[in-house]
Amino acid sequence: MSCIDVFEKYYSFAKLPTDNKFYNLKKENYELVKKLYAENATELPTYPLRATIQTTDFCNLNCIMCQIHSQRDKHKLQSMKKADFDLFADKLFPYLVEVHPSNIGEPMISEWFDYLCDKAIEYGVLLDITSNGTLLTEKKIHKILPNLLDIKISFDGVQKDTFERIRKNADYDVVVRNIDNLLRLRETEKSKGTVTLQMTVFNFNFRELPDLIRFAKDKGVDRVKAYHVHSYSDDINKYSLFNDLQQFEEVRLQAIELAEQLDIELELSEPEVKNNATMDLIAQKCRLLWAEWFIDSDGAVYPCHTHNYIPLGNIFQDTPKEVWNSEYAIKLRKTPTDKAVCNDVICRNCGMNYLKHDENQPVPYNKSDFLFNTSAENEPVKWNKRNRQFLINR
C-alpha cells in the first residue's frame, strides 16, 4: 500500500466540509504531512491530522472489563478543564481533519462536550466519537450530527441480559431507543456521519455476533466492529477467548459471510497465526508519528495509544511545533530506518509497522496484552498493540 493509500484509508480528508474557512489550511497541512511522511522527514513544520483528546476519564457505567474501574486504586481519574482545552484548541483545530474525544471514559459526560462540538463546527473538524450510548439524548444528537464522521456505540450483546451483564448500570432499552433516535434524526438532518455498533468479545457473548449484524441491518446501522477484550483483572481472564481462540473461528467466518450478504461493513479480530508459520505482513512506516496526537487530560501529548508513559511534550505548556519537534518525537521518527534507535523505544515489534494483505489475514497475537498477569512472549511482531486502549498512569 502506497503512502497515499495509507492516508486515504485512515484519514477522512475527502469528507471535510469544503465551505469552512479553514479548509485550505487543512488541505495544505494534509498534503504536506503526506509528503514529509514519504520523505522520512524527522522534523515537521506541520500539525497532526487527527487528535484523540482525553476530555474525561469518568463514566456513568461500571462495565465489567473496564480499566477505569479495575485500576481505580492505582490511578487518579480526572477530566480536562475547559480553560485548559482553550489553551490549544484555537491553535490546533484549524489544521485538524478529525478529533476523537475520550478514548476511555464517556465523552458525553464532560461538562463541555457541547462546547467541543461547537469548536468542531467552527473549525470544520470531523467528530469521531466512541460512546456507551446512554447519554445520547436528542439534544446531544443535534450537537454531533453536523460534523459527525462516525459514532461507535458500545453494544456487547443483542440479548438484554447479555448487554446488561457487561454494561453495568446501562439500560438496554434506553440505549436501543437512543440508537433509533440517532438514525431517525440522521436521516432528517441529512447527516453524512456513519453509525457503528461495537462489541467487546467474551467467551459468553461471541455467539451473538451474527445476531448483532442482523440487528444492525434491521436498524439501518452502517458498521459492526468486534474485538477481543483486554483483561485488566484476574476475574476477566476467565472470560477471554484467548484461553481457547479456536472456538471463535466458526462464528467469525459465519459473521463475515452474513455481513457480505446483508451489505454491512464489518471489522473483526483477525484469526491467529500459529507459531508465525504463515505470517506474511507488509512492512510499513507507522503513520502516527507524522499524523496523530494522543492528548491526555493533564496536557501530556503521547505519540500513540501504547506509549509507555513517555510524552512528546505538554500542550498546556508547549506550542504545537515544540511538541511535534521535541527530541523524543524526532528520535521516534528515526525508528523505521535506525535499528539501534528501534531497540530503545516503544516502536520495537509494534504491529503499527505492518499492514495486512487483506482484512481477514491471520496475524500474530501476544497473549500478555489480552490476559492480565500473563508473561510477555517474544513475538517478532506484536500486532495487538494496534488495539490497545489509551493507558492511564498518573
Write the layout of secondary structure elements.
Layout: H1 3-10, H2 23-38, E1 50-53, H3 67-70, H4 82-92, E2 98-101, H5 113-123, E3 126-131, H6 138-144, E4 148-154, H7 160-166, H8 172-188, E5 194-201, H9 209-219, E6 223-228, H10 234-237, H11 249-262, E7 265-268, E8 282-283, H12 288-291, E9 292-295, E10 300-302, E11 313-314, H13 320-324, H14 327-333, H15 339-342, E12 354-355
Parallel strand pairs: 1-2, 1-9, 2-3, 3-4, 4-5, 5-6, 6-7
Antiparallel strand pairs: 8-12, 9-10, 10-11
Helix pairs in contact: 9-11
Distance between the termini: 38 Å
Q: Helical stretch count? A: 15
> Could you state the order of secondary-structure elements as H and E?
HHEHHEHEHEHHEHEHHEEHEEEHHHE
| Structural class category | alpha/beta
Q: What's the helical proportion of residues?
A: 25-40%
Q: Mind telling me the C-alpha Rg?
A: 20 Å
Major β-sheet strand ordering: 7-6-5-4-3-2-1-9-10-11
Beta-strand residue fraction: 5-15%
Structure explained in plain terms:
It is a single chain. This protein has 394 residues and is α/β, with parallel strands linked by helices. The chain is 33% helix and 13% strand. It has 15 helices and twelve strands. It is globular, with a radius of gyration of 20 Å. The two termini are 38 Å apart.
